[in-house]
Amino acid sequence: MTTMTRRTALASMGAALATPAFLKKAHAAEVTLRVAHFLPGVAPMQTQFFDVWAKEISDASNGAIEMQMFPSMQLGGKPPQLADQARQGIADITWTLPVYTPDRFPVAETMALPFMVTNAEKTSVAMHQLMQEFGQNEYKGLKPLAFHTHDGGKFHTRGQKISTAEDLKGLKLRAPNQATGKMLELMGAETVFFPVTEMVVGLSNGVIDGCCLPYEVVPAFKLQELTSVTNEPEAGARGLYCNTFALVMNERKYEGLSDDLRKVIDDASGAALSQRLGAQFDKFEAFGRSVVEKQGNEIHTIPAAEIAKWREMATPIYDEWIGKLNDAGHDGAAIVARANELLDAG
């Protein structure tokens, strides 16, 4: 073997030794992660986020990590069981809402209180920070990958304009969560709780006058055809409510990965992913609003000064939540105050 050939061979051997193991197996996945959620496979969340995110992780690991998607609860169970499915290893990663299991994840639920939302991106950043500061022990057995919210809800009605609390009196509205339902009742509305599928029937037959949901939900259920007026807070005011989301991974599965593969997961999660998910929901929101506009429905503005009054009216709801946080071993007042501080700073 010539000197040049030996040098080339040694150089190649050195490069091979220096290459992480997962990079050597570009065409054979070392790890398959099952990702489960409750939405249909055709939902924008699947096609515009999960599919893209999975490919990014596959590319970053050079094919060593493969994600298998199980939308529509294809691994069995019901949406409230998603966090436990990840903890038990039925799925490796799940995307779920803390409000599906009321009071179980109280820190993560805090941003789902009334008027604890600006837009989805900023509120998601605030929620991630809140969980870093106060919610580290809330998801035991799980590796949180991201926390986020959707944009603030709006009142979609069959014709009623809402400018003041007085306009809510007697209206029958479908409420999206317990805290928002209590807020609406404080202002005189009659609230009902049922799945969104039943909400469509309720709007169609006049059982309810409207619902409180973000624009992003509108296209999937054709709410623009079932309602004629959308009442939204004035720009700059807090949104009516938002629901919170958690993207979590089985902790044992995460810890069982090699250092290189854990880094791939770490690089694709955390604060940046929370912000990205929030921004994704702001895009969904803008599209939903465009659908309402295209339908020709009226978009009515609720003055910011009125929203401020409603926040004062919701004080008993915040006080009750602070008590729940205290009962769970937290400093409830500090958590609610910090949440508001983060939202105002955003």
UniProtKB/TrEMBL annotation:
Q: What is its main location?
A: periplasm
Under the heading CDD domains, the entry gives: PBP2_TRAP_Dctp3_4 (cd13665)
> Can you quote a single GO CC term?
periplasmic space
Q: Name one GO biological process term.
A: transmembrane transport
Q: Where in the cell is it found?
A: Periplasm
Enumerate the InterPro entries for this protein. Answer: DctP_fam (IPR018389), TAT_signal (IPR006311), TRAP_DctP_sf (IPR038404)
The name on file for this protein is TRAP-type C4-dicarboxylate transport system, substrate-binding protein
